[in-house]
Specification:
Elements: H1 2-5, E1 11-15, H2 17-27, H3 40-49, E2 51-52, E3 55-56, E4 63-65, H4 68-75, E5 82-87, E6 90-96, E7 99-102, H5 105-113, H6 121-129, E8 130-136, E9 139-141, H7 145-160, E10 165-170, H8 177-187, E11 192-199, H9 208-222, E12 228-234, H10 244-254, E13 259-263, E14 271-274, E15 277-280, H11 281-286, E16 291-295, E17 298-301, E18 306-309, E19 320-322, H12 325-333, H13 345-355, H14 363-370, H15 382-393
Parallel strand pairs: 1-5, 10-11, 10-13, 11-12, 13-16
Antiparallel strand pairs: 2-3, 4-8, 5-6, 6-9, 7-8, 14-15, 17-18, 17-19
Helix pairs in contact: 5-6, 9-13, 13-15
């Protein structure tokens, strides 16, 4: 590899971070038995059988980068030739060409998403990054993020001697009360809980960093933190389709988890049509070699006066407050405090203080004017302000 690094005449493939993260997943064994870029023959076999080395695999693992420059490099690549892998003008690895072949772009898109309709946001985004030519061959890349997650989980398991390690894939967008209930219930029946916080590659108003901060706060203050770890999950495009429950389960197993919790609303749970018969996606998940538990939706019932499972509550939907994440996020994006029954006040305060930095011209004056205090002069952050404001909302004697 060192001699290769000194060769400045090598041709370049220009990829984005999402592509090398996906390559690293296979390199680090997270997609086992997938461990290489597949050639045309292997790809065709997977399209026909949806199986690779005895494991269900919904689509081939390939690299087909978009772009005129990449297309020319691939069209003219020779077997045995070494290509640089370049990300943002930095060399991040090398690939030895075994073969280059043309792919059916729409066929791949349909295998991932179940549709090739360009109005589908996932289809639209993936079409932009998918080229006509795929390359197979051995590769080496520099991307330690996934290796570090594997080590963190292994260290946590060893520290407490975990026999049962349970995974939950979460966006926590935002972290709400139903998430909290799910995490607590999971901890009752596991030694170690691994929260895989989804780390997408599109910019979002509620960034990964903000979501991590809220989860970290909740774990540190309200859970036995020696039994919970939060790690990033590289939520690349291959997990975006209707087979993502299978791929999530496969990844969790290969990260070292023995169990995985999937919500009944998890995308990919349900039924799909395959080989002229209706099959449950769970048939495929269970063959991945990890114990899977499907949990029902949690709601707040205004008759039960608490958070309940939709499977156990006898009251109708008209009595239920749903924890619909996009709607709660809309409230926060508008700069409003969601009711504490939806989101813990400290979590809302963290999010709003990050989304609306320096929102108030004279925060200290507002705070001292309308908030009760202990009589001492104190510095107050925007987070403190939102927490106290919600406490005022909950004052009931005049309402």
């Amino acid at each position: 590899m060192e001699s290769i690094r000194k060769n400045n005449t090598l041709k370049e493939l220009h990829l984005d971070k999402e592509a090398i993260a996906t390559l690293s997943l296979a390199k680090e064994g997270i997609l086992k038995p997938v461990d290489k870029l597949m050639d045309k023959k292997e790809s065709e076999e997977i399209y026909k059988t949806h199986t690779y080395k005895g494991q269900f695999l919904p689509f081939p693992f390939i690299l087909a980068p978009a772009g005129k420059r990449n297309k020319e490099v691939l069209k003219n690549a020779k077997k045995g030739e070494i290509l640089k892998i370049v990300v943002n003008n930095k060399i991040k690895g090398y690939i030895e060409v075994d073969s280059v072949y043309k792919i059916d772009v729409k066929r791949r898109i349909k295998a991932i998403f179940g549709t090739d309709d360009e109005s589908h946001p996932g289809v639209k985004d993936t079409l932009k990054r998918l080229g006509e030519y795929a390359i197979s061959g051995k590769y080496d890349i520099e991307f330690d993020d996934i290796k570090n997650v594997k080590q963190k989980i292994a260290n946590a398991k060893k520290l407490i001697g975990s026999q049962k390690t349970t995974a939950i894939m979460m966006a926590a967008k935002p972290l709400h009360r139903a998430h909290e209930r799910l995490l607590r219930l999971t901890l009752e029946d596991t030694d170690l809980l691994v929260i895989f916080l989804l780390k997408p590659y599109k910019k979002d108003i509620l960034s990964y960093e903000i979501r991590y901060k809220t989860l970290e706060y909740f774990v540190d203050n309200f859970l036995p933190k020696n039994r919970v770890i939060v790690v990033p999950f590289e939520n690349t495009y291959i997990f975006a389709g209707y087979n993502n429950a299978v791929l999530d389960s496969l990844a969790a197993k290969n990260f070292g988890c023995s169990d995985i919790i999937l919500g009944q609303n998890h995308s990919g749970i349900g039924i799909f049509y395959d080989h002229d018969r209706i099959n449950s996606i769970m048939d495929k998940v269970e063959k991945s070699g990890i114990n899977v538990e499907i949990v029902s939706e949690f709601v707040y019932c205004n008759q039960c006066k608490t958070l309940v499972s939709t499977k156990t509550c006898p009251h109708g939907k008209h009595h239920h407050i749903s924890y619909h994440s996009p709607s709660i996020l809309e409230i926060l994006k508008a700069g409003l405090l969601p009711p504490a029954v939806l989101v813990r006040k400290e979590i809302s305060a963290i999010i709003l203080s990050e989304l609306f930095k320096n929102r108030f011209k004279d925060l200290s004056n507002i705070y001292d004017s309308v908030m009760p205090g202990n009589g001492l002069l104190e510095e107050h952050s925007e987070k403190d302000f939102y927490i106290k404001l919600l406490e005022l909302y909950q004052t009931t004697s005049l309402t």
